[in-house]
Design a protein that fits this description.
Elements (H helix, E strand, L loop, with lengths): L2 E5 L7 H12 L4 E6 L12 H13 L5 H18 L6 H12 L4 H20 L6 H4 L10 H13 L4 E4 L2 E3 L5 E3 L5 H11 L4 E6 L20 E3 H9 L10 H7 L3 E5 L8 E4 L11 E14 L9 H11 L4 E3 L6 E7 H4 L3 H12 L3 E14 L9 H11 L4 E6 L5 E7 L3 H13 L1
Parallel strand pairs: 1-2, 1-6, 2-3, 6-8, 7-9
Antiparallel strand pairs: 4-5, 8-9, 10-12, 10-13, 11-12, 13-15, 14-15
Helix pairs in contact: 1-3, 2-3, 2-5, 3-5, 7-8, 8-10, 11-13, 14-15
The chain binds aspartic acid (ASP).
């Protein structure tokens, strides 16, 4: 059994958290490769090290002093090292780092140092070797990950050591120029490492015990999701359920490696397993998510179905204005384009005018007060009565459904509601399916 364990920023925010991490790693011999983020927030108003680093970069670019954020970063690492009682000093590395910033180090290089220093500390604390991510995670000049090359190089580096610590979030070009992933990208590093050594499980340790069936800010104590498939997760995270970086799924998925989301502060919880395939024993609905801030363009034209190219012309009007659509439900003589509200606001007249010119509709109007709620579940396919239960739950709360969209996979049903009904709608749906 071989496990990759990745720890997020809050799991590494202080020496106390480091101690929990060590205990978790030592509790299971299979946990041999450790990927770390930079220290995150210790309390809600705290600042993540990565954000402080980005502030250093910004100030340097504006030719202002970056001493204040820089010393804060140095102090945070100093404190962790001292509190862990390690015989390690990063003072000389910090002096050198400061000089590099002054000399014009790139944004990616500066941002990557949170992971770099944290991994150095973790390696010393565990007594594991340190693997330099810049040698194993390969990007091209434009910052695109070279996945196959990475798989080979990282795999070769890892196989040299039975155990090791790897900094997340960054890699380098073949010339050694550091490049980073987008924010939260240490999740991707963990996934690449899991693929490179064909791990049995990729454990992603964070500060929640996995995914919940609904947003806990809306539903009180929602049920935890034990097992979710990759496809379900994609549907749920598209709507805003974010625990894991979206791109972290691909490397492990292609090798059939499950991801286990775990809680560093509650290691006894099983967390959520993300798998390729699962039986449906958990219930019909796996999760409920949604998003606010949407608008829609309703277009009506009789005999629309006979008009070749109608949909294409509508969409090219949007494409010309760089508006991407979220959904496209249609009726016999109607077509609705759902899009982000911010893309529509302020451009209403222009969009209507352009559509009138392009497709001469009988009627056209815009609304800008919608939200979407997605009910997602592998158990929904072929299971009669799901829609009835969903609509009854909303009807009983006197919530009007503005639009309905069921994906062809039968993995989800999406409803659009008035934005004001968002929270009430989610609670009603949760009650209908969670019991
Ligand atoms: N430290 C980086 C961030 O704050 C990357 C990560 O934590 O995954 O986004």
């Amino acid at each position: 059994m071989l496990k990759i364990v990745k720890f997020g920023g809050t799991s590494l925010a202080s020496a106390e958290q480091f101690a929990k991490v060590k205990e978790i790693i030592l509790a299971d011999k299979a946990r041999r490769y450790v990927v770390v983020s930079a220290p995150g927030k210790r309390f809600s108003d705290d600042i993540k090290v990565t954000d402080l680093l980005l502030t250093c970069f910004r100030l340097r670019s504006e030719e202002e002093s970056f001493d204040e954020p820089f010393e804060k970063i140095r102090q945070r690492f100093r404190e962790i090292i001292a509190d862990l009682g390690l015989d390690l000093s990063l003072e000389a590395d910090f002096d050198e780092f400061k000089k590099r910033i002054v000399r014009g180090a790139s944004q990616a290089y500066i941002a990557s140092r949170g992971e770099y220093f944290n991994a150095k500390i973790m390696a010393a604390y565990l007594g594991f070797p340190f693997i330099e991510a810049a040698e194993g995670i390969i990007f091209d000049e434009d910052g695109r990950l070279q996945e196959e090359q990475t798989n080979e190089k990282l795999g070769a580096l890892m196989k040299k050591h039975p155990r090791a610590v790897i900094p997340g979030f960054y890699g380098a070009t073949e010339n050694g120029d550091v490049r980073i992933f987008s924010r939260g990208g240490s999740d991707i590093t963990g996934s690449l490492a899991a693929r490179a050594v064909k791990a049995d499980v990729y454990e992603n340790w964070t500060d929640v015990s996995g995914f919940l069936m609904a947003d806990p800010r809306i539903v009180e104590k929602p049920r935890a999701i034990q097992v979710v498939t990759y496809r379900e997760l994609r549907e749920l995270s598209y709507m805003g359920a974010s625990v894991l970086h979206e791109d972290a799924i691909f490397p492990v998925r292609r090798e059939g490696i499950p991801i286990n989301i775990r809680n560093t502060n509650a290691p006894e919880d099983d967390g959520t397993m993300i798998v390729e395939k699962a039986d449906t024993s958990e219930g019909i609905v796996t999760g409920i998510s949604g998003k606010k801030g949407l608008g829609a363009i309703y277009i009506e034209k009789s005999m629309m179905n006979n008009e070749l190219g109608f949909g294409r012309r509508v969409l090219s009007v949007l494409e010309d204005r760089k508006i991407s659509f979220e959904h496209l439900p249609s009726g016999i003589d109607t077509l609705t384009v759902v899009a982000d509200r911010t893309a529509l606001v302020g451009h209403e007249n222009e969009i209507i005018h352009a559509l009138q010119k392009a497709v001469s509709p009988d009627r056209i109007h815009l609304v800008e007060d919608l939200c979407l709620i997605a009910v997602v579940g592998r158990g929904m396919a072929g299971s009669p009565g799901v829609a009835a239960r969903l609509f009854t739950a909303l009807a009983e709360e006197k919530i009007n459904i503005r639009m309905i969209d069921q994906g062809s996979s039968e993995l989800n049903i999406i409803v659009a509601l008035n934005e004001a009904d968002y929270e009430k709608g989610i609670r009603a749906i949760y009650r209908a399916f969670a019991s």
